[in-house]
Amino acid sequence: MQKTFILDTNVLLHSAEALESFADNHIVLPMSVIEELDKFKSHNDELGRNSRRVIRRIDSLREKGSLKIGVPTEPGGTLRIISAYESGQLPGLDYQVMDNRIIRVAYGLHCNKKEGEEVIFVSKDINARVKADALGIEAQDFEKQKINFDELYSGYCEIQVPSEVVDQFYDTDIMEVPGAVLYPNEFVLLKDESNPKHTALAKALEDSMVTHLNSKFDYTGNIKPRSKEQRMAVELLLDPTIHIVTLVGQAGTGKTLLALAAALQSTIKYAKYNHILVTRPIIPMGKDIGYLPGAKDEKLSHWMQPIFDNLTYLMQEGDGGGEDGKKAQKKVDELMKDGTISMEALTYIRGRSIPRQYVIVDEAQNLTPHEVKTIISRAGEDTKMILTGDPYQIDNPYLDSASNGLTYTVERLKSHAVHGHITLRKSERSALAAVAAEYL
Q1: How many CB atoms within 10 Å of residue 74?
Q2: Tally of CB atoms within 10 A around 433
Q3: Are residues 255 and 313 in the same domain?
Q4: Which domain does 189 fall in, by range?
């Protein structure tokens, strides 16, 4: 049975491929959605690009017939555009609000549906879905590119094995773990069935084959991992054969600090890369403070202050006080001045080709799957990409822990040898930060 889906504007802005994502069902766009797309089309960000792509796609479909009556789509369904006045008035809603005009169309279709027909309102806006549900309309989130966050791949597992298997692993470079099904670069803790303290930490190569962690990666610069998860992260961050690494963890688990430490060591000490590029989405927490004065670099310095804090910490030789702190800051300034480290807003990354660079994308949980794809596809030869973030701290109003670009990348790339992932669980910043992350 075919269904009728009424799409909110945010669905099309989230994914330009949304019109092709509903199989052979009917898609309805209220005229208000077209008006909103028109407002976004001049923007230079991802929303503007998606708006223009959707508008061009709708325009191309006009060749197949009348959008008022309905035109066929490639998956076998139809698309039509309905004016708000055709669905009548609905008391209780302020029609100066664009969302309410869209919901009015959905309500009109819901009230006039045929026997057995399903009418579904699709929106990324939680409040819009609540309103629709309160009016008796079936409402759903846009499910494409969503993953089950509760079952997110952690990059690490424990396997109970006989005592002799643990001993055998210590005596060999590469070993097969019978019956194990492992992803490439997945970490494995081999546990003695009879003695839980008799263990061995290994990294998967392919299928059920495992090997030892590289002893050269026990440290990164002057940073020593404080947990086994951090040790696993360092292994991935320093291994040049792994071209993309995803780090997921709550505040204080060391994601950004470890990534920057590994970047400095790989670029300056090992000379594997020519430059370090650090970027993060420009999305404020809370109310925006408005326009910032100065040129691009001056504006970026405010958004990149967490990066500067970590770099200064890594450059310290003592406790960071007095002269030591000034020397550390001077070293950071020199690295920025000579181009070893550069910082860029994601707004300017489209169209670039980035070869032989160590790229860190911080706060990647605020990016859509399409935005992450755009960033990763910028990688040139010998470039390594690091995506870090906390899916519990999302400031993008239309993303959640299951639909953001970071967790989507983790699930989609887990079976590829170029990718490595680890979920960091313990906060190492301070006792206070650990308590806040767990209980607040």
Answers
A1: 9
A2: 15
A3: yes
A4: 147-212
pLDDT band at 247 (very low <50, low <70, confident <90, very high): very high
CATH number for the domain harbouring residue 313: 3.40.50.300
Q: Which residue has the tokens 């197949």?
A: 64
Instruction: Decide if 409 contacts 372 (C-beta within 8 A).
Output: yes
Task: Give CA–CA dist 153/176, Å, rounded.
Answer: 22
Q: Same domain, yes or no, for 153 and 68? A: no
- H or E element in which residue 407 lies: helix 405-413
260 and 409 within one domain: yes
pTM over 0.85: no
Tens digit of each residue's pLDDT (9 = 90 or more) over 45-54: 788 989 999 9
Quick one: how far is CA 237 from the chain centroid? 18
Share of the chain above pLDDT 70, in %: 92
Residue 152 has pLDDT above 60, yes or no: yes
Same domain, 242 and 390: yes
Contact 15, 35 (CB under 8 A): no
Say if CB 257 and CB 306 are below 8 A apart: no
The CATH number of whichever domain residue 92 belongs to comes to: 3.40.50.1010
Distance CA(270)–CA(180), nearest Å, equals: 34
Instruction: Let me know how many helices (H) and strands (E) the chain has, helices first.
Output: 14, 17
User: Do 340 and 363 belong together in one domain?
Assistant: yes
- Which DSSP category does 114 fall into? P
**Confidence category of residue 95, pLDDT binned at 50, 70, 90:** confident
Q: Residues 32, 151: one domain?
A: no
Buried b (16+ CB within 10 A) or exposed e, 145-179: bbbebeebbbbbeebebeeebbeebeeeeebebee
Reported as a single tens digit per residue, the pLDDT across 270-319 is 999 999 999 988 765 444 445 556 555 565 666 678 888 899 889 987 66
Q: Is-contact 157 203, C-beta < 8 A?
A: no
